[in-house]
Amino acid sequence: MSVELAGRSAFTALGTGAVILTSDIEAIDGAVAAALVEIDAIDAACSRFRADSDLERVNRGRGRPVHVGATFLDALEVALNAAAYTEGDVDPTIGQSLRALGYDCDFAQVVDGPRRAAALAVAGWRAVVVDRHRSTVFVPDGVRLDLGATAKALAADRAAAAAAAATGCGVLASLGGDIACAGRAPESGWAVRVAEWHAAPVDADGETIVLHGGGLATSSTTVRHWRSGDEDVHHLIDPATGRSVRGAWRTVTVAAASCVQANVATTAAIVRGDRGLAWLESLKVPARLVAHDGTVVHTDAWPRDAST
Asked: Rounded distance, CA 214 to CA 157, Å?
């Protein structure tokens, strides 16, 4: 997913490419500074690859309640709400399944494995116990949380909101293609190239749409994938099987009121497979779905004037 505008800064964050755009080119430095505060807070709380993160301390809790900070409590609440909303199709207790498939380090270091990993049962989001009063989180021994399905989107929402508040101008924040808008957008809106990879060039296969607010997210099985024995696997886990999703769609893009809402919808649609399109239609959200053979399908709410 690629974007174009005036005030622009690109950098790496949360293990992926990040872009901040501002409607006022003079505001870009202040916008980036404010956005980074929020992004760094999510990273410190929710990273699977930092031993000092709240997430990893909870994962090492061995069946004991672990004291955590406010940012992690907020991020976990978002993840648990997503699980309840999707009836468990987006579930934060998939961490052990990801590790079993070989995704146990930063993706740049993931290598093809010599043996096919065994499927691991997912405990399910109801196994997580949050005590807001004591600021503690409990997961059963052996269960590992992963907030990858929602934390990056939450970071985008918070980064855009903080940057807009700090600068008083319109801001678009993109974290690995998870996009959030805040403040007053440019009169012509934010032009966004929707593709299967967030770093694709502006002339890549896809469609260009215009955002004036809210969020946009894309979930795809085509970018973060690797070999596990004789099997091609990816990071989108079906909680019902503990394995990579094998469904009708390789990529789903959704626009919604927030990046979190969009991300939850894209992930759940891929997990739901054949049922995903009808579910998105029932939500009346603009969505673009790409089948494994490259066929593109849109929901009725997708903009008719999108250019290819």
From this structure: 9
Annotated domain spans of the chain: 1-308
* CATH of region 1-308, choose from 3.30.300.180, 1.10.260.40, 3.10.520.10, 3.40.50.300: 3.10.520.10
pLDDT band with cut points at 50, 70 and 90 for residue 195: confident
Confidence band of 211 (pLDDT split at 50, 70, 90): very high
Question: Locate tokens 């004591």: which residue?
Answer: 134
Give CB contacts under 8 A, 24+ apart, made by 145-148. 145/55, 145/58, 145/59, 145/76, 145/79, 145/92, 145/93, 145/95, 146/48, 146/55, 146/92, 146/93, 146/94, 146/95, 146/98, 147/46, 147/55, 147/75, 147/76, 147/79, 147/92, 148/48, 148/235
Quick one: DSSP state of residue 68?
-
Q: Global pTM?
A: 0.90
The residue assigned the tokens 């992930």 is: 267
